[in-house]
Amino acid sequence: MFIQLKLKEPEKWVKAREAGRVAGVAFGSYASLFGVARWRRSALLGMVLCVAGVIGLWGIGFFSRSWSAG
């Protein structure tokens, strides 16, 4: 968290975000991600894969002790 506070945004990103505010574009919002049909399916699939990975790793970590203890 402390590292994040010390990091500065790249100048290119700051300029793009300011140009987006002038044009009325919402950067980084879920509405802009799911609003475009081209990216909707890929975004949902990516989120499902991430959730499955986290649940899978949690399950392995949680149940591996009972498997190895016999």
Strand proportion, as a percent range, falls in under 5%
Q: How many beta-strand elements?
A: 0
Question: Averaged pLDDT, please?
Answer: 85
Q: Helical amount among residues, as a percent range? A: over 70%
Provide a concise account of the structure shown.
This protein is an all-alpha fold. The protein has four helices and no strands.
Characterization of this structure:
There is one protein chain. This protein has 70 residues and is an all-alpha fold. The chain is built from four helices and no strands. The radius of gyration is 20 Å and the shape is flat. The N and C termini lie far apart (40 Å).
Q: What is the fold's blueprint, element by element?
A:
Blueprint: H1 2-6, H2 11-23, H3 30-35, H4 37-69
Task: Label this structure with key terms.
70 residues; mainly alpha
